[in-house]
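Moderator note: this is an archived Q&A kept for reference. The question asked for a predicted structure of one protein chain; the sequence and the answer are reproduced below.
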Amino acid sequence: MGRAIKPSGGGRQSAPAMGVQMAKMKKDALKSGQIPLDVGLMQDTLVMPTGKNLPSWTRDWRARMRLERRRLRLRAVEYFSVMIYKYWMVKPRPDLALFRIGSLARDLHRDTYSHFASGNLQLMESKLCESFLASLRRRISQRPPNTGLKWTVHKYLSKPKCMSYKAAYYPPQKGELKTERNGILQAVVRLHSLQSLQHFKKITVRDGQHRLVVKEVATDAQGNEVPEVAEGVVPKDAKESVEYLVVQKSLRMGKESPWMVWGTTEETKVKDLRKDKRSMRQMFRGDTRSVA
């Protein structure tokens, strides 16, 4: 903090510079634990590509080598940052849930999309980051009236796989104890499932006693009535889905939040890695031209 500015001849004190004000606001926010839960996808998150997106050792060995080196380097950095986060920077030692992160993500995945399909996210508000929650609410509001969805995951076709696990903490403030630290854990988990989505609409009919009742009728995506699939039966249009769910856990003033869903992401593209490399080269050369 700079020295106080002396009053001018008019007796009024000049306002602090904007940079000083922002720094003070950030410092006060860190001290009070009022930091945002949604910090976005953490930098250098690598989701290893698979299948046709993974460069072949025989056809494009340079790209594959570059990707494997990047993975090894990032995994080493992630490992040491997680160990420092758990054993050095924060007290009491935080619960990393390293061996449970797959099952935690799977449960959050099932609960999130089941409630989203039903159109009621109230029970999930404390488990969804703000921007993701707002996105789901917006999509619910855009649905035609008197319609609904039923989302079902029939089974998970493979064990959930952790693709990335990062730990970070905010710069310690002067006089801050290890029991007052602020930080975040963020993981990307691959989920491979067989799932289906059933549309339905609500219509008013008369029952056996000629009373008006609301009935749910199964439809296709265009609103045409279709036969309803029996409970426990896997429909013919069920599809395999591979999703990369991003979950995170915040640390505020030494207190851990529950695991939350940040959203989803995609596999890292090799062309993006090349673009990042060119960006770094241009930065070191002082080249300000945009990257093609």
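Archived answer notes: The beta strands are 147-156, 161-169, 183-206, 212-219, 239-252, 255-256, 260-265.
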